[in-house]
Amino acid sequence: MASEPTNQGAKPNPTSLTTHPRALWSRSLAVTAAIVFCVSTAFPVVAGFVKDRESWPKWWGVLDVGIAFVLAMLAFLILGLGRRLVNKEVEDISYRAYRILLHGIFATIVVFFLMGDRIMWVNCLSGFAWRTWLLLYCLPEWFALFEATVGLSGVPRK
User: Fold this and answer.
1) Angle between helices 58-82 and 121-146 (to 10 degrees)
2) What does the DSSP assignment read for 37-102?
3) 4: alpha, beta or left? (left if phi > 0; alpha if psi -120 to 50)
4) Residue 122, SS3?
5) What are the boundaries of each domain within the chain?
6) Tell me: the pLDDT tens digits for 68-127?
């Protein structure tokens, strides 16, 4: 008669202890990056309506560059942590999001033609361009980090 260990259930599974906190941290990182992205995008939006750049406060540019730097660092972090988490489901969701975002680019072109003389494009176009590129480049990894706790389909991860 073989004796079985009595404390077999007391030994925790190390993967179950680390998966959930890491997943929450990943999702928090993704949400933080989305918030910083929206705040950072507000700067070129406002700059597009500034006619006289010389009258604009100097701290505005410093704040814009500072938040843009934080956004770039978050993007590097997302790319580094999310690269290994990208799977077929994340790729499919990303391609659907790309199709939606392409409509936003088309809408920007329409705004350019309709309101081209009222918006100071020289003040905001470069800001929109690099932020759009960064969004599109990091999107699959962002979705991978965001879905770490709950799948994009709404089904909890095991």
Assistant:
1) 30
2) HHHHHHHHHHHTT-S-GGGS-HHHHHHHHHHHHHHHHHHHHHHHHHGGG--HHHHHHHHHHHHHHH
3) beta
4) helix
5) 22-146
6) 999 999 999 999 999 998 999 999 999 999 999 889 888 888 988 888 788 888 888 899
